[in-house]
Amino acid sequence: MALLDKYDNPLTARQAAHLLRRITFGSSQESITQLAGKTTETVVGFLLSKTTAPGPPKDPANKTFHDLPWGYPATEEMEQNKNDAIRCALIKGWWIGQMLQQKSNIIEKMTLFWQNHFVSTATDVSDARFIYGQYQLLRKHALGNFRTFVIDITKDPAMLWYLNGNENVVGKPNENYGRELQELFTIGQGNYDENDVKNAARVLTGWRPVGFRNTASAEVTVEFRALRHDTGNKIFSSHYQNTVIKGRNGTSAGDLELGELVDMILRQDATALFIVRKIYRWFVQAEISPLIENEVIKPLAALFRNDYEIKPVLSQLFNSQHFYDAKLIGSQIKSPLELVIGSLSHFNQNVPDPVKDRGTYDLFTQYLAAKARELQMEVFDQPTVFGWQPYYDTDFYELWINSTTLALRGAYSDAIIKGIPALKININSLDLAKKVSDPSNPIVLVNELTNYLFAFDLTQSQKDYLIDEILIPGLPRYEWGVEWNQYISNQGDILKRNSVKRKIDNMYQYLLRLAEFQMG
Amino acid sequence: MKRRDFLQYATSSFFLPLVLDGYMAKAETNASSTFMKALLELAEINDKILVVVQLNGGNDGLNMVLPLDQYSTYTGNSFRANIAIPENKVLKLNGLPQTGLHPSMTGLQTLFNEGKVSIIHGTGYSNPNFSHFRSSDIWHTAVESDQLSTSGWLGRYLEESYEDFPDAFPNAEFPDPLAVQISSISSTTFNTSGASGALAIKDPDTFARIVGDKPVIDPGTLPDTPAGKYTAYIRQQQTSSVAYAGQLKAASDKGKNLVTYATGNPLAEQLKIVARLISGGLQTKIYYVTLGGFDTHSQQVDATDTTKGEHANLLKYLSDGIKVFMDDLKANGKDDKVAGMTFSEFGRRAISNGSKGTDHGWGSPLLVFGTGVKTQAIGKNPDLKDLDGDNIKIQNDFRQVYASILTDWLGASEATVKSVLFEKSFANLPIFRETVLATEPTSTSLASIYPNPAYDQVVLESEILIPGKDKLTLTDIHGRDFPLQVTYLSNTKILINTFHLSSGKYFVRLKNDAHSIVKPLVILR
């Protein structure tokens, strides 16, 4: 039976949670229940369905800023820089807010994938309008056509600035983009040579962004300067069948040669394989065995290679038996964003209203962005053009975890369970307990709560420890039922309520510090 | 003979019975036997500390260490006129008139002139890879450019040198982390076959506060799945983090920074923590710090003044950071225990680009600092008229630096180093050794060497040999050591294999309890 064959059975709750953790940033009892019992076809179709793009991010006065001159309304450069830095931070927080709000669609997770694939950083670009423009582009093409995507990102103002495309002119080529286009964005190492880097750079000569840090105009666009374009023929190596891209003159030269360059690269099977492997590692797991290479990667790459449409590849992967293989459930270490957002999703914590409760909204989104940054996953600010290291090469998820980041993950989960009034993070663990089929029975309570929380079962001895040492330390188990029932029959009694809540909170703090909670 | 030398000698290619402390064991060069390993560990653990400074992004070595002997080429219009440092601004170095430092590096100039810096020219590896990530990985894992490894050179060193590392650590004997990285992300350099060999922390105080208690862990086995593998990894990290946090806090509380560190220097801020931990007596062997931003494709110098700008700022951070760190260690009385090395994944193109920047290149100078430095310039300024494409050729393999540091600083045995470097031998550089230049051999009549010039083999014949006590070394005229394979033909004759040496002049030194002699040797190919 081939690994990519369709998974025909209705999804169990565990499988639905797995799919949600991978396609979005986490799961809750509600989102799991919504999908469980349905077929993959229905569920995947739903999660991959088209969404409308959100309106632009706004400043604390609820005004847009992507349509203003750079640093406006300041006139001194220092103030303009400050305004722009604030706006870059607003974009990052706003996007993370979108990730938490978008609970049952793949779009933000896939946009994040591409932002980490076609890296440009706000620190280097330092023009918030460019960064927002790139976000829009990434989101627009996230499930679209990869050929169009590569062409558009090559001409993207932020990308042109980040990889020095604006300085790549005839006679003085800057090879930065020509190299990364091949090494990181399309075909991967070993499939081109240094001569190909030089010639790709020559093809791309002449493009530059318009409006960069322009304090007079809000216009951001890109232009091709024919006079700065290298009009000579570009001859590629045998990696590309010695393709010659004819040098051209005139205003259409840039687009024509770029189209041929992208076609030449996308004609190579290695390109489809490279992208499919990266998608696989993002959504499934790190280790690509020969079996997986042959039965998953190669057929998906062949499908991709047809027309470079992204969505059909994802759809086939998420519908496959391989994706639901029990051995692969929990086979990733949660990324910082999955941890930060997913922990809140699990407790149905929502983003404060950006209009009615603007102050809290800003604090809340900036807090999440700061947590992700501490844990080494800052959006639009990867440490290098390679993106976050755990995704760059095979089997590097462990890099997310070290003494510091693990301690910080624990400190974060402690904080949200405890509650952060200023951010209106106010998790009510009692709500979750009340949804349990028989919450007064500690065995049922622990079983059901941990089933929804973890990717896989805890052992019996772990569950026993939870009941006897964490939930009701030192007391006989029936005491829990007594206490719970007293709370239920006197719900107005704040002392009884707090006594039960403290016990459950305490258990959740312990649970979220378990190694098992880091598995996504 | 010192115990360590004796052991090293015993594990080299000699086949000799080994007598030590009244125990008799046949040591057939097998360092992996438990007995030998135990002996080697005893001998290898000294109190020296290594600090690794990674310069992320590919440092432009040609604007850091300046070739004063080729300045007209260096400043040429078709070379790097748009970013060249004016000759009169270059910092001069005592005893090394042909080489200078970038004007922002006054701190390192002072240290150099005090004899505490070694410049190792043209360091890198053959068949360069121009990708940041891949090239960094080659440096981290110490492989050939076409090989892959998931473990790092320092991770393997620790694993080789400390039994059951990292799984059985910390323990009563080693309560402190063997390696500490001041960062939130651990470097591949410390990867072992299992968990990371280094503790990555931002600073010890925060760390102690947030680390929490060790969750009670179910001792049951985990499933043989990726999930099981990762869970085990995270549990191991939790256990060691909690255990180390207290040790770090204690050392940090006890330690003192005795000089003032300027604020705003990201490297100095990390080194400040390192100095404090060393001062507080933490028994950590290796520290790792990072300075990023060296990927200077454009505007690496200011438009009006090439001595200023992005690269100048970075070099100032580097130079000031190392200077204040060394001053602090000196004030703490610990400077003799510490040596540091810088490295970057590659140098940059010798020819600048049109954007006042430089693209990814090849060879670049590496710096070693500390009071233990013996040779201050290894190799020569790069020959700017002999480039490879537009790239600076390498003179020294980066693994020669690793091997030298491991043996001559940290006291590792040759067998350990060989294992760390995937069974390849690399000639040590004289970083921590006196350079032996072409001194006249003494007592030449005591030994003869033939044939000379030699090809694949040569015989050393002498009446003064004491099998079991002889120590033979082979150096070239730069004082670089080469590994030797020798066999006793009789009590007066030693056969030396020379097939691995390239043509040139060498010195064979023979040392035993009674004599020390040197014989010149010429190899022809």
TrEMBL record, chain A:
Domain of life: Bacteria
InterPro entries, per the entry: DUF1800 (IPR014917)
Pfam families in the record: DUF1800
Protein name, UniProt field: Uncharacterized protein (DUF1800 family)
Source lineage: Bacteria, Pseudomonadati, Bacteroidota, Cytophagia, Cytophagales
Automatic annotation (TrEMBL), chain B:
Name of one Pfam family that matches: DUF1501
InterPro entries in the cross-refs: DUF1501 (IPR010869), Secre_tail (IPR026444)
All copies of domain Secretion system C-terminal sorting, residue ranges: 449-523
Superkingdom classification of source: Bacteria
Protein name per UniProt: Uncharacterized protein (DUF1501 family)
Organism encoding this protein: Dyadobacter arcticus
